[in-house]
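Note to self: keep these together.
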Amino acid sequence: MRNAVGAVDTVLLLGGRSEIGLAIAERLVRGGARTVVLAARGATGEREGGVKEQADRLRAAGARDVHPLDFDAADTGGHAAAVAAAAELAGDLDVVVDAFGVLGDQAAFEADPASAADAAAATFTGHVSADLAVAARLREQGHGTLVVVSSVAGVRVRRANLVYGAAKAGLDGLAQGLGDALHGTGARVMIVRPGYVPTKMSRHVPAAPFPATAEQVAAAVAEGLRTGRETVWVPSVLRYVFTGMRMLPRSMWRRLPR
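Structure:
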């Protein structure tokens, strides 16, 4: 449950190594959260280094308890059990941050369609089972927020990153539907649509207009949680930019640079 002054107390991060996800978790810890579950593939294993670096970062920010939890985007059959395990570790889940996925490279995907399908599964299909399991848990609790890190890439899919954009479009639609499904239950969904964010995952992608840092995304999420927003654009100007983008005739859309 939220603590005595109404701040988030427990956080589950699905995608425990995500730079954006970690920035959000750290921001919530600095705002009062004390228990964080870091869910990632090999989170408890020594071979992959676990999530020790990430856990240390959150403890330094003020977290009391940081729990690693093994979570594989491709293991859709195990997602409900992973969410249940997170609740065993942390108790009621105040905020669940869904931040896992793969950006990849469009040219490489076109050369290897099977790898494109794998990336799309990690960026969309895995979220279906994970987010449905989270929604069921939050509905049972009667409170909590699922924060889904979507992308402006899914607002209108561009040829330059069509696999990633299509997967994010699916994720965004899923999140909207889940938000409607949870309406009136006490639980809710908040969709986050960042533009270009410079991270290790995006370092091979040319910078786009209106970039934002992971910390700016985190600040916008924290404010959105405080004010009860359903959708957060980062930076906020992208809401208006993409309103216009969606209205462009397809002939003009195709001329946009790769």
